[in-house]
Design a protein that fits this description.
It holds the Pfam family Glyco_hydro_1. 41% of the residues lie in helices and 15% in strands. It is of the alpha/beta class and 397 residues long. The protein has a single domain, classed as Glycosidases (TIM Barrel, Alpha-Beta Barrel), CATH 3.20.20. Strands 1-2-3-4-6-11-12 form a seven-stranded parallel beta sheet. Strands 5-7-8 form a three-stranded mixed beta sheet. Helix 6 packs parallel to helix 8. The chain is globular and about 60 Å long. The relative contact order is 0.11.
Length: 397
């Protein structure tokens, strides 16, 4: 079990009352799903390994679940059978519940780091002969802030100190697992390892010194955390105002979407926090590449659709992939992947099954899959990326 099982069991934590134990049934239908990915034109599949599926109790001395290991071996082999490159995330927020009960999970650095490193080693040993792209953590900010700061995600803690403790533990765990891979596995297996971080471009509301200072407080301060590449999850662009708030996690600034002329920075979506701003996507790609001088793997990018005929999402993909193309071809940014979020409608954490981010519609009663219009438009990215430089296909606009 994971901390999300317990979180879902707590009344009021999941918006629609959904539970992680019944979502899109990928566990039973992975072969059909992978075949559909390939049929739609995908050339890679980013998925996460559930830590408690392979080590149910989580610890370095705890027994391995060989059935869980076999499942991921089968998924990887099925990807390769269909010509899909497996792109694997080691941790996407599903901490083994036992580790949280034993010592507080990510709150206990000296315990969690060796346990996570041992889990990562098992994955490198069992899957690394075929997996050449590894992500240690998905969006550690969400684990630290949403899980331990505002209580929106599991384990649901509200604190102004825990996020910093958890964030530190996460970074040390990432560094430990990455160092292990680079020192002990990379030479033989020939893969690469990094981390994927969430972040959106922020545009100053005006040119005042106060706004510029607020913008600086929102900039990422870091070192070589991403190791061999930068994994980027990004969805939108904000404006920032020099209006002080009590939100420590936003640098005490005001994040918004309005502009000085009374307009909006981009088209609305069905989600309050997301606007369609392709030029902001191009800007963040340039910023990240200039700052870190590392290849960028786009690991999540999307907008929330609600229908099978999702015109707004088709337009979003057209704008964002055109911005990606310009960043690569005009600006010289080294971008090596583009993953939309996500292939299937699925469990969207505290929002439950309501938001349908999938490119493929899932009937949660029958588990029938139906590709949305955006599924086919997204695959134009794959066609463009694999085309000869002198004869690129028509790109969505």
């Amino acid at each position: 079990m994971t901390i999300w099982d317990q979180f879902c069991d707590t009344p009021g934590k999941i918006r629609d009352g959904a539970h992680v134990n019944r979502t899109c049934n990928h566990l039973a239908m992975y072969k059909e799903d992978i075949a559909m990915m390939r049929a739609l034109g995908a050339n890679s599949y980013r998925f996460s390994i559930a830590w408690p599926r392979v080590i149910p109790l989580g610890g370095k001395e705890d027994p391995v679940n060989e059935k869980g290991v076999k499942f991921y071996n089968d998924v990887i082999d099925e990807c390769l059978k269909h010509g899909l490159t497996p792109f694997v995330t080691l941790y996407h927020w599903d901490l083994p519940l036992e580790l949280f009960n034993r010592y507080g999970g990510w709150l206990a650095k000296d315990s969690i780091v060796p346990d996570f490193t041992s889990y990562a080693k098992l994955c490198f040993e069992r899957f690394g002969d075929r997996v050449k792209h590894w992500l240690t953590l998905n969006e550690p900010w969400c684990t630290a802030v949403l899980g331990h700061g505002i209580g929106q995600f599991a384990p649901g803690h509200v604190s102004n100190t825990e996020p910093w403790i958890v964030g530190h533990s996460l970074m040390i765990a990432h560094a430990s697992a990455a160092k292990l891979y680079i020192n002990e596995f990379k030479r033989v297996q020939g893969g690469s390892i990094g981390i994927t971080l969430n972040g959106d471009w922020t545009e100053p509301f005006d040119e005042s010194p106060e706004t510029q200072n607020g913008l600086c407080s929102r900039m990422v301060c870091g070192s070589d955390l991403s190791r061999e590449f930068y994994g980027c999850n990004t969805y939108t662009t904000n404006t920032i105002k020099a209006v002080r708030t009590d939100d420590e996690f936003a640098g005490y600034t005001t994040m918004a979407f309005d502009t000085p002329d009374g307009g909006l920075i981009g088209k609305r979506s069905q989600l309050g926090w997301l606007r369609d701003v392709p030029w902001g996507f191009r800007k963040i790609l340039n910023y990240l590449y200039q700052r870190y001088q590392k290849p960028i793997y786009m690991t999540e990018n999307d907008r929330y659709p609600s229908r099978r005929h999702d015109k707004g999402r088709v337009e979003y993909y057209a704008g964002y992939t055109q911005a990606l193309k310009e960043a690569v071809e005009i600006d010289g940014v080294d971008v090596r992947s583009y993953f939309g979020w996500s292939f299937l409608d699925n469990f969207e954490w505290a929002s439950g099954l309501g938001p349908r981010f999938g490119s493929v519609y899932v009937d949660y009663e029958t588990f029938e899959r139906t590709p949305k219009d955006s599924a086919r438009s997204l695959m134009q990215v794959s066609l463009w990326a694999s085309a000869p430089a002198d004869d690129p296909p028509v790109f969505p606009r």
